[in-house]
Amino acid sequence: MNSNNKVYVIIPAFNESKAIGPVLDNIKTLGYSNIIVVDDGSKDDTYDIAQSKGVIALRHIINRGKGAATQTGLDASKLLGADYAVTIDADGQHDPAEIHSLLTPLLNGQYDVALGSRLLAKNGMPLSRKIANKIGNIITYIFYGIYVSDSQSGFRAYNKKALGAINTTFDRYECEAEVLHQIKIHNLQYIELPISVIYSKYSMNKWKDIRDVPAQTFINGFKMVFKMIIRSITT
Predict the structure, then answer these.
(1) Rounded distance, CA 161 to CA 148, Å?
(2) In whole angstroms, what is the distance from residue 39 CA to residue 43 CA?
(3) DSSP SS3 for 98
(4) Is 216 exposed, middle or buried (0-12, 13-18, 19+ CB in 10 A)?
């Protein structure tokens, strides 16, 4: 990677004190020094751990949601003059070694956005997560007219053009679909690339309620539809 390219890695985090330290260590080991952690009103030591790692640590006083935390990180990267930004989850499910894979088509000037897709990877996801993902994909297509294999992935890369165009307003997980809508309306060139999923005991326990209660996938999908309908009526 050209050292003149300014890459920022953005990590929205909420109550991730058990995972955020190793995640930051892994990213720094790979040579990425511009790291922004946005602590989204955590009740644990997430913010303090991020600070102790020497990264840029920002903080929401209250929990606003992953979407709000991600947008805060993107805004900060723009203010700091980022040429590229990568968003990655804080719980260790993403492999930081794949950041380079997402950046490559952007660095080559071929695309504006690279979308990590767990559905294109060999190891895949548990069935309930696949169902929830498929629901999200269909809802995104119905409302925004763009279909991708993993509409809910948080592992994505953006070039400077995309950073200037994307400005999400949904505070929670609907933001992933909102980004896809903005990719379409701004005619940004995008590519989907396979990403692996690391299912540790910690990450699986974190999502246990969703995994073990199939009805939750329907409830989450319904909430997403409801919010999109309200937004379309009021804007």
Answers:
(1) 21
(2) 10
(3) helix
(4) middle
Task: Give the residue ranges of DSSP H helices in 53-107.
Answer: 66-79, 99-107
Quick one: pLDDT at residue 37? 98
Give helix 127-144 / helix 175-185 axis angle, nearest 10°: 40
Q: Which domains can be identified in the chain, with CATH numbers?
A: 7-234 (3.90.550.10)
Amino acid (1-letter code) at residue 178: E
Q: What is the model's pTM?
A: 0.85
CA dist 85 and 73 (Å) reads 9
The residue with tokens 């629901």 is 135
137 pLDDT band (50/70/90 cuts)?
confident
| Token digits of residue 70 | 């991600």
Residue-level pLDDT at 170:
79
User: Would you give the distance in Å from CA 170 to the centre of its chain?
Assistant: 13
Tokens standing for 195? 């990403």
